[in-house]
Amino acid sequence: MPDRAVSSTDPQRPLAPAELLELDRRHVWHPYGPMPGRTAPLPVESASGVRLRLAEEFCGRRELVDGMSSWWSAVHGYNHPVLNEAARTQLGRMSHVMFGGLTHEPAVRLARRLVEITPEGLEHVFLADSGSVSVEVAVKMCLQYWRSRGQPDKRRLMTWRGGYHGDTWQPMSVCDPEGGMHGLWSGVLPEQVFAGAPPAGFDAPPEADYVRHLRETLARHAHELAAVVVEPVVQGAGGMRFHSPAYVRALRELCDEYDVLLVLDEIATGFGRTGALFAAEHAGITPDVMCLGKALTGGYLTLAATLCTSRVAEGISRGEVPVLAHGPTFMGNPLAAAVADASVGLLLEGDWAGEVRRVEAGLRAGLSGAEAIPGVREVRVLGAIGVLQLDHEVDMAAATRAAAHEGVWLRPFRDMVYAMPPYVTGDEDLAAVCAALRAAAAEG
């Protein structure tokens, strides 16, 4: 009751940091956390460039360089004038209008741009709420495609181990069922087909035995498979593993041979993170369906997109139910679409490839020799991604404090400490990110 009384008396009264954290602990549920919370989060009062401004000191710091791009989305940094202006301009027109029966310029412009920049053949764009929902939509597209084709028994999905595709129902079913975050739901989720994890190494020569394993797995289940769903080149939250683009090419060829759709989840890898605008470009292929999110709006608003080929769209539209039965309330939100179009434009008009190469070089130099740190098993760098793989479960609290002492915000998980900094991170700040990674690994 005291909380409600305070809010109703003076809802605009600024909250002191201690009060904010107490209210947070009592009422706010954070990702992958208990309720009430046991570890106090850091209160952020503002953000600009690559820095987060804290409401109070943490480890002697009021500002931290963001080494995470806010879960890989804020590729341009924070408070960017171009994106701010896009949001302000659109707010002056309309922040939202339903997409059923109506359309508007921000959504149309964004869809056109996405079709222009994604692999050739992806012609149709479904604008969704979040990355996980975009995977739900992709699965629904594939299931409905086969039902429209008169093959409703093709309703299972194939993937490889080590993946992560989101926290809603169908995406959870293609996350790793053992090492992933969703083992709790084993026996409840749809049972999908899992191949072994792809061999490690972006530059490693492809292993013929593994390609044979993919072929055998797909051939055995082709009659019941609607689609293969994978993250190309980089498996993100499932373990930050890198693999050869050759395996993505192999999947494209096998899916064509056995008449199975291929879905690429580029929510984390899209918009330049791996050094190509989309990771599919490393493999030189076009999927039947592609999922985008995270960096789509530059970290400003939640928005995702599911793109598909004309084959998929026309197949659905010729079916007994000739519509894709999905329509979120905030589908095609004008505010998010306007900012997304501005964000993608900002990326394309700048030297994003040069910036990612510079970040990659800085990560390689700054993490060179980090294998000598006790507990570090492997160092991995690809594009604007740097990973220190540990030989033990990370002590998140200790690792976070160690990074903050270096003036950097990191969010380690499981058995790794990693960074995905904004592309605009300067060389000095990048050196600080590397120092923080090393310190976090040493302490965590």
From TrEMBL:
- Residues marked Participates in the substrate recognition with KAPA and in a stacking interaction with the adenine ring of SAM (site): 32
Function, as annotated: Catalyzes the transfer of the alpha-amino group from S-adenosyl-L-methionine (SAM) to 7-keto-8-aminopelargonic acid (KAPA) to form 7,8-diaminopelargonic acid (DAPA). It is the only aminotransferase known to utilize SAM as an amino donor.
Q: What NCBIfam families is this protein classified in?
A: bioA, PRK05964.1
Q: Which family does it belong to?
A: Belongs to the class-III pyridoxal-phosphate-dependent aminotransferase family. BioA subfamily.
Q: Give the cofactors, semicolon-separated.
A: pyridoxal 5'-phosphate
**Residues binding substrate, per UniProt:** 71, 164, 294, 327, 411
Where found in the cell? Cytoplasm
The reaction(s) catalysed by this protein are:
(8S)-8-amino-7-oxononanoate + S-adenosyl-L-methionine = S-adenosyl-4-methylsulfanyl-2-oxobutanoate + (7R,8S)-7,8-diammoniononanoate
Sorted alphabetically, which Gene3D superfamilies does this protein's record hold? Aspartate Aminotransferase, domain 1, Type I PLP-dependent aspartate aminotransferase-like (Major domain)
Provide the positions where the record notes the PTM N6-(pyridoxal phosphate)lysine: 294
Native species: Streptomyces nanshensis
Q: What is this protein called?
A: Adenosylmethionine-8-amino-7-oxononanoate aminotransferase
What GO CC terms are in its UniProt record?
cytoplasm
This protein's pathway reads: Cofactor biosynthesis; biotin biosynthesis; 7,8-diaminononanoate from 8-amino-7-oxononanoate (SAM route): step 1/1
Which GO MF terms does the UniProt record name? Answer: adenosylmethionine-8-amino-7-oxononanoate transaminase activity; pyridoxal phosphate binding
Query: Where does the source fall among the domains of life?
Result: Bacteria
Q: Which residues bind pyridoxal 5'-phosphate?
A: 131-132, 265, 328-329
Any GO BP annotation? biotin biosynthetic process
Fill in the subunit field for this protein. Homodimer.
> What InterPro entries does the record point to?
Aminotrans_3, Aminotrans_3_PPA_site, BioA, PyrdxlP-dep_Trfase, PyrdxlP-dep_Trfase_major, PyrdxlP-dep_Trfase_small
Keywords, A to Z, come to:
Aminotransferase, Biotin biosynthesis, Cytoplasm, Pyridoxal phosphate, S-adenosyl-L-methionine, Transferase
Q: What is its EC number?
A: 2.6.1.62
